[in-house]
From TrEMBL:
Locations listed in the record: Cell membrane; Membrane
Family (UniProt): Belongs to the complex I subunit 1 family.
UniProt name for this protein: NADH-quinone oxidoreductase subunit H
Recorded coiled-coil stretches: none
């Protein structure tokens, strides 16, 4: 009996380790090729070719860029706080990678007669976990900017902190309205409800729009890239960084963009649900169905990533006062109205629309 339980526990540990390694590797590879895609999208919009020298169609350009960062000299300013200077990019990268732990990437695989859930941790407070980890990411920016002992870096770090605080409020309020409809914080249950019914974007179009705008601000993407405003703050909060410390900050931004896209697809667009495709009717497809579900989720994510890039190369950067006005005077009132209207509808529905 004891040996059987030990074997089950060992299989569970191996299963989770394989999932962690696979998701981390996938996130890094996708983040690496997001840099390639961004340059190609920019080239298309600006009517030029983009990277086309390293490998066929320039596909090896991300590897060349990564090798360049590895080979660069590592410089730590004499006047900086050495420990915090190193901790900043590590914390930003760690927070970016941890967010993917509660995301369901597909249904259940059948491996040697055992069901394997394509989700590292199916906890009952999944959305709260995402918010908690995302909030940690700003510490990487703050610590890096302060430890650099550079006034431009510190100013950029303060901008980043105030921006994240301002836009996390309407993002949270938009999710409260969503949770009123779903009744659960568990990511897998939110996806399951959308598979059985309509996608949440149908019920919460305004909530999705608010969440989308806040995701741009959380990821420091144009038009909300004030912490990295090169024309105002030289190079932003990572001005004093070089080599892979700079690489960690840049990779963290692209991983955040990828994870934000996955979260939006999961919460509002059915997650791994395949449109017009009844999972129950194709249950006999087995692991092939799970593979199609994962491809469906990544397809939705690719559309969101393209949207991030398209906006970057078409909309100019906001001024700082415009950024704050939009957050506090625009999005927060809108999200409160959305929450109140959703609460009224849920209450009326619970009372069977009796007045």
């Amino acid at each position: 009996m004891h040996s059987a339980l030990l074997a089950i526990d060992l299989f569970f540990v191996i299963e989770k380790l394989v999932l962690i390694v696979g998701i981390v590797t996938m996130s890094l590879v996708i983040a690496m090729y997001e840099t390639y895609a961004e340059r190609k999208v920019a080239a298309f919009i600006q009517d030029r070719r983009g990277p086309n020298r390293a490998g066929p169609f320039g596909l090896l350009q991300p590897l060349a860029d990564g090798l360049k960062l590895f080979m660069k000299e590592e410089i730590i300013p004499n006047t900086s706080n050495r420990f915090l200077f190193i901790l900043g990019p590590c914390l930003a990268m760690l927070a970016a990678m941890m967010t993917s732990a509660v995301i369901p990437w597909g249904g259940k695989l059948n491996v040697m007669g055992r069901e394997v859930n394509l989700q590292i941790a199916d906890i009952n407070i999944g959305i709260l976990y995402v918010f908690g980890v995302v909030s940690m990411g700003v510490y990487g920016i703050m610590i890096g900017g302060w430890a650099s002992n550079n006034k431009f870096s510190l100013m950029a770090a303060l901008r980043g902190a105030s921006q994240v605080i301002s836009y996390e409020l309407p993002m949270g309020l938009s999710l409260i309205a969503l949770l009123m409809l779903t009744g659960s914080l568990k990511m897998s249950e939110i996806v399951a409800q959308q598979i059985d019914s309509w996608w949440n974007v149908v019920y919460q179009p305004l909530g999705f729009f608010i969440f989308l705008v806040c995701a741009f601000a959380e990821c420091n993407r144009t038009p909300f890239d004030l912490p990295e405003a090169e024309n105002e703050l030289n190079f932003g909060y990572h001005q004093e960084y070089s080599s892979m410390k700079l690489g960690f900050y840049l990779f963290a931004e692209y991983i955040n963009m990828f994870i934000s896209s996955v979260i939006m697809a999961t919460l509002f667009f059915g997650g791994y649900d395949i449109p017009f495709f009844n999972d129950a009717a194709h249950a006999d497809w087995g692991n092939w169905l799970v593979a199609l579900q994962a491809v469906s989720l990544l397809g939705k994510v690719a559309l969101f990533i393209f949207l991030f890039m398209w906006v970057r190369w078409t909309i100019p950067r906001f001024r700082y006062d415009q950024l704050m006005n939009l957050g506090w005077k625009g999005l927060i009132p809108l999200s409160l109205i959305n929450m109140i209207v959703t609460a009224a509808i849920v209450l009326l529905k619970a009372n069977h629309w009796k007045f």
